[in-house]
Amino acid sequence: MKQQLEIIRASALEAIAQTTAAEELEALRVKYLGKKGELTAVLKQMGKLSAEERPIMGQIANEVRAALESAIDEARIRLAAAAMEQRLVDEALDVTIPGKPIRIGHKHPMYKALDEIKDIFVGMGFTVLDGPEVELATYNFDKLNAEEGHPSRDWSDTFYFDEDSRVMLRSQTSPMQVRAMETMKLPIRIIAPGRVYRKDEVDATHSPMFHQVEGMVIDKGVTMADLKGTLNAVMEQLFGEGTVTRFRPHHFPFTEPSCEMDVQCHKCGGKGCPTCKGEGWIEVLGAGMVHPKVLEMSGIDSEEYTGWAFGMGLERLAMRRFKIADLRLIFENDVRFLEQF
Ligand code: PHE
Questions:
Q1: pLDDT per residue over 148-184, tens digit each?
Q2: Exposure b/e, 7-38, CB count within 10 A at least 16 = b
Q3: DSSP E strand stretches across the chain
Q4: CB 265 within 8 A of CB 275
Q5: Ligand 1, atom 7, residue with closest C-alpha
Q6: Per-chain mean pLDDT for the chain
Q7: Region 229-243: what's the mean pLDDT?
Q8: Is the CB of 32 under 6 A from ligand 1?
Q9: Model confidence over 107-140: pLDDT tens digits?
Q10: Is the shortest distance between the CB of 194 and ligand 1 below 6 Å?
């Protein structure tokens, strides 16, 4: 038995000294000291020994157990230290290596222009609304007084989703006028920026997808003078003091009277150049007094309330604001172009 114990001691101590992982060490502990372990198996045979032998063997067995236990403890400390050492190596950080440059982007120039526009209107007490790009013809046309047969309802101009021409990609942000009138309390002062879609070929001033900013005011005693005064003030804030504008008569189904507003060309100062196609002026928005029929269709008493509305092309405004010559640059997302703003 003594020999058995010595064999266990020697082989266990050797195995423990060679372990390189905590799981291995635990397996050895179970193998030798566990309930079904080798040392335990030997101790179970003690009963067979004579009364003289028993205490001697018992003492040796205890020594072996103590030796194994302390060897295991030592190994545990050794493994923990080695693991820590390894982590320090693995996670070492060389602070002398130059860092990777981080490229910070910035807002697209068109959205910068939009932010400026929003700030100007919010400063005047307007609320900014968001609306659906997939719109019902009811809102895009019917309730805006553009009846069946109106040229803008044609399939050659508008993207429809259904045979009956009832669901469409909105062709203007004006449906937000109706949505505002139907849901908001009077008086109303809103702007509604967003994407709009028309079947246009791409060129220097056209794209089948572009952005508009709709605006509308409805209150008692609102006149065309408010429209002109507000829009002139907005253009001066956007383009600088002394910005020259002009209003031309126009037609829209949902405003009466209607007008278009031009801003004097930034490139030539009104003399005429390629940017303004020789005209000296750049058209930036359509506007007018909200048609009484449109007010009534949305349940507003047109005897008591009047209003004005406008819709401006955001790309064109951004082009003028940042002196960009071609609309396509706005959508191409060429970093060499975007970096300039
Ligand atoms: N919705 C018109 C367009 O897309 C612009 C507009 C808006 C005109 C509001 C008058 C009033 O051309």
A1: 999 999 999 999 999 999 999 999 999 999 999 999 9
A2: ebbeebbebbeebeeeeebeebbeebbeeebb
A3: 127-128, 134-136, 167-169, 188-197, 209-219, 245-252, 255-264, 281-290, 306-313
A4: yes
A5: 311
A6: 92
A7: 93
A8: no
A9: 999 999 999 999 999 999 999 999 999 999 999 9
A10: no
